[in-house]
Amino acid sequence: MTVVKNQNLCDLVGFQKHEITMKLSYGKFILDEFIYGGHLAALSVTAIALSAIMLLNIMIKWEFLLIVYLLTLCVYSYNYHKELEIDSLNNLSRSNHLKKYYKFFPLILIIYITAFLAVLLYFGNVESLIFGGLLLSAGLLYTYKFKKLTRKIIGFKNYYTSFSISSLAIFTSIYYCTQIINWVLLLIFMLLFLRLMINTSFCDIKDMNADKKDNLLTFPIVIGKEKLITLLHLLNIISIIPIFIGVYMNLLPLFSLFLLVTTVYSSYYLLKTKNKTTNIQSISTALVDGEFILWPFLLFLGKSVMTMI
Hints:
The chain is mainly α. It contains 17 helices and no strands.
């Protein structure tokens, strides 16, 4: 009887260990999918759209944020899967994760695109549907066709990506049916473009090995890592000019000054690169890609403080 009880106890312990292992495995997969499946990047770009809404001082429409999230998810997930083999050189963790469901990706991409178009068609207007379709096409075509231009034009990837994402400011204006082009919109566009140039150029450092193999003329390959860091410090200072101009001319709300924190934020990770032990991959994923997620919080904090004064 004792032997039977011990055996049952062992079976129970073994089952519980197996169940815990399975839960941990599922949890790791979900976390990896969030980071490597394009969801973190989509959340970051959605935060940019939310920040544009706050700077334009218009009402937040959550379905628009969902539209931006799905749009970005389509573009990044397509890029990650198409460059799976390249990623094996500089982002093995992402490559290994995506290989787990690579054969299902065409179906997943169709679901993402269908969901994006369905939500945009239901909530948006004709103009936003056209512009949203253009942004989606531009994002997909970069991976499919335009990336090759970076072999001929220095930094083309950075200009293209920064311009495309900065165009969310225009997309926001079109979706909300506000005045399409005005000085406020241009200042927000310039602010986003400059900050994104810093973001994308820095991230190219971690991709140097793969980009060299692909013959891409990225900034760190052409001018070198050290000179690029110096240039990004300068660009970091220049990027605050649209904020000062906007506040001085009463085009941007006073609480937008809280975005000046981002210059300190960028200076921190740029200075950390001087340390040879610094992991560029980790900084790019945790700090650089996460910058824009901080923007809505900074603006909300700034708005709250200005209300109290």
